[in-house]
Design brief:
Number of strands of chain B: 32
Strand content of chain B: 15-25%
CATH class of the largest domain in chain A: Mainly Alpha
CATH topology of the largest domain in chain B: FAD/NAD(P)-binding domain
Number of strands of chain A: 0
Structural class of chain B: alpha/beta
Largest sheet of chain B: 5 strands, parallel
Structural class of chain A: mainly alpha
CATH class of the largest domain in chain B: Alpha Beta
Order of helices and strands of chain A: HHHHHHHHHHHHHHHHHHH
Distance between the termini of chain A: 43 Å
CATH architecture of the largest domain in chain B: 3-Layer(bba) Sandwich
Largest sheet of chain A: none
Radius of gyration of chain A: 22 Å
Number of domains of chain A: 2
Shape of chain B: elongated
Shape of chain A: elongated
Number of helices of chain B: 20
CATH topology of the largest domain in chain A: Fumarate Reductase Cytochrome B subunit
CATH architecture of the largest domain in chain A: Up-down Bundle
Oligomer: heterodimer
Strand content of chain A: under 5%
Strand order of the largest sheet of chain B: 9-6-5-13-24
Radius of gyration of chain B: 31 Å
């Protein structure tokens, strides 16, 4: 047997955990009630007991290299059953936030979002301010006369010239972070099969929220989360189609209400609103299940809700509000959407990236289960 | 006993189930001076009927054929010095447990009546000797348990003498700044409250304190102990009534823990050495006097390890928690790691554990410490195996603290005596082989030389008998402070590993027992379990053969010996269990209301159908402490058992004299079952060794049976606890079935 390697408990990590509200991890005495009650924990590698232990020792490397924290949907069954009130659900949430920050490219942006408790005015205010300055500097900051058409207020070319580079940057940053994560995962254990081939079932799983459903306790949150996901997907598809329509077919905007693209966009909007309302209601009515909300968590939720709210209000406001108000709302909307875009790799939003990768990694490292029956 | 009265109660269904005329005829056949039937004997009218019969007919003994002797004790209390009382459980042992109106049931009732009558006839009333009883309580040891014991006894109005070997009072707690939390919310160390306790006692007019003093002798018996103490002022002699031994414990010797490197580096210390540093507000590495960055605590250092201390010392986990809490409070920035096998924080200490766990910089990790490496002032590494991290771990440390367990400051009285006996044999033995063997024993027991603490003048040794880990024997289930020496009570860490809070409580408990003992002796009564018993054993010494079985087997060291080996009774040490009576081959030991002859007569009085085709007869000897109450419970639940069984209550299975078995079998009794308490390491025998002795004696009997061509299965010994009452009917029924298979006793009709 090789000589045991020196292991140093990391007080710096413990301090960071404590700062983010994860001091309860210290209470854990490893009874494994949490792993026992978790419906999502794989039998051969249950969590979160082990993650709690690593968190106590501050073994950041092991935590980063293990996909388990990403498999949790934070139903907080573990937190409710924990005999020592160590709150594993909360701890895992904080570990995910730490991982997102640790993997962020560039690191400084990760830290900026990671400290959302203090930086949120910048994170939300700066993009809005950016739009105001941009519009002002291009001489566009004036409410158009007549029937309000947002295209007259902020020309589409301006929107695209902002969002295309931003999208490109976000994809690049996500690529770098995702690659970093992918290389850490599993501590170099061999994977088998093709990434894309395994990605497909994972995407189906995400699209249907099948895993979400397998966690009994998380089920009330499933519908809201699913609607939100599809709302965003719908909104993204609509945006894509609009670009094609606008520049490919020179379609006139705004589209009439009965236009299929418009319908798709509005349906997505409805999904987002209903999903958002469901999730907020869940949070408000079932505090214990929700776990402790950290600023990191709240920031992301606020931005999402702000995007939905300002989007809907802008659309309605075009007809219902005075043009000044509608335009102001529209600028705020563009601002928070930009904020959502820019913080994607650094906010809770990034769980979409890391969870997907963790699930693909899981599929590529576990031998296929024998067919049932 | 002349002139006996029989009182038949017909209440509680007895009258409906039994033929009273038949019972009356039995009473007449036994020549009862009076036979009174009453519909409710325990009612004031019934008790009055007994009292007037006692006065009118000048009865010397009365037989109450009613309910169990455990029921209605207040109603049926008569002056024990004037009238002997025997009670027959018609209600429990007959009516509640057997079908009404059947022949077998009636035969059973009549037999029980006969047996009760002859037993009563053999009784005498005790003549209590009122002796001068000293009320002073001696407390040996001035640690927290002893101090609390002294305060409790003095508070109860008893003069107290406290003897402490050290110069100052307080034991391990002396000078400590902090104690483990004892009050809500149990989350932070408490200031040490010992100074107030000591001040209290020093100011108490009833308490005399001898420090730097040693016991040199304790002679006599409880209530009249004569104590010699060597003090700096010279020898002091005084009398005491009862003794609390609270001599504490000492830490296990850390140098023996070679794998933990105690002797290799000054930076590896015991928790006691750390405690001394923290007491002075210091935390530094002895090698360079610099503050440590990381302190690693190793729990169970040598504890729960068969190589060192096989037991858990109960306080080390809490003490470590306290030290960790103090370090984080007074030396912020120092990291602590506690390596444990199991954190044991019973009761509210769990809250303390949780609070300390949450301290920043404190880590608790489970695993087995394999070794500690490091020499001199060099760096230390603690190697952990079976850690929860799933692999071996090497943990660098600046300071390593070994949480060592405790070893009782007790002496093994029996071992010391065995040593002294062997020394005598080695010098004066008759043959060279004898002397050589004795020398071997002396060698084995050499470690006990000079370890005496109490210096008791007891035939069975100068100190309390000890259990295997060196703690004194104690009836830990029922009477935890009890030792095997009447009037001497053990408290604190010399009795069992415990923390300071428990030791304080122990001191109180033991003091209360001591006070109770003095009170009982003042009334001429036995202490429990036979509280209130006025009878003392009578030794008919003219027939004694000096076989020394009684002096050897008495669990309480009651008997000393003269030079020839004749037993010398110390009645105030006696617990009235009757184990000496069971041991005596000459049958010369008896109690006023309990004797070999009495029980033998009961066996002879029962009817044994001679026809081999007739029903078998079984004698059941039941210990009155657990088995008999258990049978009463079974009866109260209307459980049924075999009607051929005749139950005879006895004081302890250890009081069973082998002659009873011979008597029973020779009468043609088909089988005999003895039900007593559990024995062995977790014994429940109220007289400690009685049940075990009975098993040994009956083991020998079964060999004899085989020689007589009697099946050994005809004698059965069963261990039973009070709460196993459900088993009793099964035991009796099964035994009856087994006997039926064996067929009738071949000795029937001889």
């Amino acid at each position: 047997m090789a000589a045991p390697s020196a292991i140093l408990p990391s007080t710096a990590f413990s301090e960071e955990l404590r700062r983010r509200g994860g001091a309860t991890a210290a209470r854990c005495y490893q009874c494994a009630t949490c792993s026992g009650v978790c419906e999502l924990a794989p039998e051969d590698s249950p969590f979160p007991r082990r993650q709690m232990l690593w968190a106590q020792w501050g073994l950041a490397d092991r935590l980063a290299a293990h996909p388990a924290v990403w498999l949790c949907y934070q139903c907080n069954d573990c937190t409710q059953r924990c005999p020592r009130d160590a709150r594993p659900g909360d701890v895992l949430q904080i570990l995910r936030a730490l991982a997102i920050e640790g993997l962020a490219f560039p690191r400084v942006l990760g830290q900026l979002v990671g400290r959302a408790a203090t930086t949120w005015p910048i994170l939300i205010g700066a993009p809005i301010l950016f739009w105001i300055v941009l519009l002002a500097s291009t001489g566009l900051l004036s409410v158009p006369k007549g029937t309000l058409v947002y295209g007259d207020f902020v020309p589409h070319w301006l929107i695209y010239s902002v969002f295309f580079p931003v999208a490109g940057w976000v994809m690049y940053a996500s690529w770098v972070s995702g690659r970093g994560f992918w290389n850490l995962l599993g501590d170099g254990s061999p994977r088998s099969g093709s990434f894309l081939l395994h990605l497909l079932p994972v995407l189906t799983e995400i699209a249907t929220h099948k895993r979400f459903a397998s966690c009994e306790a998380a089920r009330p949150r499933r519908l809201g989360h699913l609607l939100l996901l599809w709302g965003f997907v719908g909104a993204a598809i609509t945006s894509g189609l609009l670009v094609v329509a606008l520049y490919g077919f020179h379609t006139e905007l705004p589209l009439p209400l009965e236009h299929p693209f418009k319908i798709l966009g509005n349906v997505s909007g409805v999904l987002l609103v209903v999903g958002g309302v469901l999730l907020v209601r869940n949070r408000l009515t079932d505090g214990e299940r929700t776990g402790t909300s950290t600023a990191f968590d709240t920031f992301f939720l606020t931005v999402v809700l702000a995007v939905i709210a300002t989007g809907v209000l802008s659309e309605v406001g075009r007809f219902a509000f005075p043009a000044e108000l509608a335009c102001a709302l529209y600028v705020v909307h563009l601002g928070v959407v930009l904020s959502l875009f820019l913080t994607f790799p650094y906010s809770k939003f990034a769980h979409l990236l890391y969870r997907t990768l963790a699930l693909v990694h899981g599929r590529m490292t576990t031998p296929p289960a024998p067919a049932e029956g | 006993m002349e002139r006996l009265g029989v009182f038949l109660c017909t209440g509680c269904g007895i009258g409906q189930a039994l033929n009273l005329e038949g019972l009356g005829a039995v009473a007449k056949e036994l020549r009862a001076a009076a036979c009174i039937t009453h519909p409710c004997l325990c009612a004031p009218e019934g008790v009055e009927a007994i009292r007037s019969a006692l006065a009118g007919d000048e009865l010397g003994g009365i037989l109450l054929a009613a309910c169990s002797p455990r029921a209605k004790q207040a109603e049926f209390r008569f002056d024990p010095t004037r009238v002997a009382v025997e009670r027959v459980s018609l209600r429990e042992h007959v009516v509640w447990s057997h079908p009404a109106g059947e022949e077998d049931t009636q035969l059973l009732a009549e037999d029980l009546l006969r047996m009760g009558m002859v037993r009563l006839a053999k009784m005498t009333t005790p003549k209590p000797q009122v002796e001068a009883i000293e009320r002073t309580v001696l407390v040996v040891g001035g640690g927290v348990a002893g101090l609390e014991a002294a305060r409790a006894a003095a508070g109860a109005g008893h003069p107290v003498v406290l003897v402490e070997a050290q110069e100052r009072l307080g034991g391990h707690l002396a000078g400590l700044r902090h104690l483990v939390p004892e009050r809500p919310p149990y989350d932070a160390p408490h200031p040490n409250r010992l100074p107030e306790l000591i001040a209290d006692l020093l100011a108490h007019p009833q308490v005399r304190i001898f420090t730097s003093s040693q016991l040199r002798g304790i002679a006599g018996q409880p209530g009249q102990f004569r104590v010699e103490v060597e003090t700096p002022q010279g020898m002091q002699s005084f009398a005491v009534g009862a003794i609390v031994q609270a001599t504490g414990a000492h830490p296990y010797e850390a140098p023996k823990l070679s794998h933990l490197g105690y002797s290799h580096s000054p930076n590896i210390m015991t928790s006691h050495e750390l405690e001394a540093m923290l007491r002075d507000g210091i935390l530094r590495r002895p090698s360079d006097l610099r503050p440590p960055q990381r302190v690693v605590f190793i729990q169970c250092a040598g504890s729960r390890d068969p190589q060192h201390l096989a037991y858990c010392s109960a306080e080390c986990c809490a003490t470590t928690l306290k030290q960790v809490a103090v370090i984080h409070r007074e030396f912020p920035g120092v990291e602590t790691v506690v390596l444990y096998r199991d954190m044991r924080t019973p009761g509210q200490l769990e809250r303390f554990y949780q609070a300390v766990q949450e301290q920043p910089g404190s880590l608790f990790a489970r695993g087995e410490v394999e070794r500690v490496e490091g020499n001199g002032a060099g760096p230390l590494t603690v190697y952990l195996k079976d850690s929860l991290l799933g692999n071996a771990v090497a943990l660098p440390a600046d300071l390593v603290v070994l949480a060592v367990g405790m070893v009782p400051n007790a002496a093994d009285g029996e071992a010391i005596r065995a040593l002294h006996d062997a020394e005598r044999r080695a010098a004066t033995g008759e043959s060279e082989t004898q002397r050589a063997e004795a020398r071997k024993v002396v060698e084995q027991l050499a470690a006990h030389e000079g370890t005496e603490i109490l210096h008791l003048d007891y035939r069975q040794g100068p100190d309390l008998p000890a259990l295997k880990y060196g703690f004194p024997d104690s009836h830990f289930i029922c009477f935890p402070y009890e030792t095997r020496r009447t009037g001497i009570y053990a408290a604190g860490t010399m009795r069992a590993p415990m923390d300071a809070a428990q030791a304080a409580e122990d001191g109180w408990g033991a003091a209360m027992k001591a006070v109770q003992c003095v009170a009982a002796l003042s009334r001429g009564e036995a202490v429990h379990p036979r509280s209130g018993d006025l009878g003392i054993p009578d030794f008919f010494l003219q027939r004694c053969t000096q076989c020394k079985r009684c002096t050897e087997e008495c669990p309480f060291g009651t008997l000393n010996e003269d030079a020839k080996g004749t037993p010398q009774l110390n009645p105030l040490r006696c617990r009235r269990c009757g184990i000496c009576m069971g041991a005596c081959p000459e049958r010369i030991i008896s109690f006023p209301d309990y004797s070999v002859d009495g029980v033998a007569s009961m066996i002879k009085a029962m009817s044994v159908p001679e026809d081999v085709e007739e029903k078998p007869r079984i004698v059941a000897l039941l210990c009155e402490n657990d088995a008999l109450p258990a049978l009463d419970v079974a009866a109260s639940q209307r459980r049924r058992w075999n009607p051929w069984v005749r139950v005879i209550p006895i004081r302890c299975l250890g009081s069973t004299n082998i002659v009873w078995i011979a008597d029973a079998l020779s009468r043609g009794i088909d089988g005999m079952v003895l039900i007593g308490c559990r024995y062995g390491d977790d014994y429940q025998c109220h007289y400690v060794r009685g049940s075990e002795l009975a098993h040994t004696r009956l083991g020998n009997v079964q060999e004899t049976l085989q020689r007589l061509a009697l099946e050994p299965e005809r004698i059965k010994v069963v261990e039973l606890a009070h709460d196993e009452y459900g088993r009793i009917p099964e035991i009796l029924d099964e035994f009856a079935t087994d006997l039926e298979k064996l067929g009738p006793s071949p000795l029937k009709g001889f």
